[in-house]
Design brief:
Layout: H1 19-37, E1 43-47, E2 52-55, E3 61-62, E4 67-72, E5 86-87, E6 92-94, E7 99-108, E8 118-124, E9 128-135, E10 144-153, E11 158-165, E12 171-173, E13 181-188
Antiparallel strand pairs: 1-4, 1-13, 2-12, 3-11, 5-6, 6-11, 7-10, 7-13, 8-9, 8-11
Length: 189
């Protein structure tokens, strides 16, 4: 009973961090805290305002975007002078800060009951598939592929949106106001 008052939780068995790892974690947390304190959450959103016609069956095609809806990279905290997450020239969005992001995307397809699938894929750095949505065609309405993907990115990683389908002929991705779109929002370290 008359101990020193120090209590140790027997369930807390986390390994001790090395000084170097603790220092890196602290610096990273400070950058993240700086963004949070400012109320800044880096985010970007791009969309297409015209149809992407005649996507070839079973051939993956990158979705082409022509409008930046939102581009808030919060570059002032890192001193990054390029100032943009959205890259319409290459149809991609860059992560300007390392950390966890939420990727959101949507692809609307023209009405077509044929074929066996419509597919959307989010790729990181042009190669790694990070999220996929596959749906069956609908005969009387537009088929949509929608994705929400949590993703850890390094600074200057990028994401792109790809589409493919199983119709025997060319199929259009149609512009329906806000879609197709690709969005990236930083949520933390």
């Amino acid at each position: 009973m008359g101990g020193s008052g120090l209590r140790v939780d027997p369930l807390d068995v986390r390994p001790a961090l090395s000084d170097e790892r603790r220092s890196r974690r602290s610096a990273s947390a400070l950058r993240g805290f700086s963004l949070l304190r400012q109320g800044v959450f880096p985010n970007g959103r791009i969309k297409a305002t015209s149809n992407q016609a005649g996507l070839v069956v079973a051939t993956e095609a990158k979705i082409v975007f022509d409008t930046t809806v939102k581009d808030s990279p919060a570059d002032d905290t890192e001193g990054d002078p390029d100032g943009s997450m959205a890259d319409l020239t290459n149809n991609r969005i860059y992560a300007r800060h390392a950390g966890w992001y939420i990727v959101m995307a949507s692809i609307p397809w023209e009405v077509e009951s044929g074929g066996d699938y419509r597919r959307a894929r989010v790729k990181k750095n042009g190669a790694t598939v990070e999220g996929t949505d596959t749906s069956d065609p609908i005969a009387i309405f537009n088929t949509f592929n929608n994705l929400v993907v949590p993703l850890q990115l390094d600074k200057d990683d990028y994401i792109e949106l790809f589409a493919t389908h199983g119709v025997g002929a060319g199929l259009d991705v149609i512009a329906t106001g806000e879609a197709p779109y690709l969005a990236l929002t930083w949520v933390g370290l």
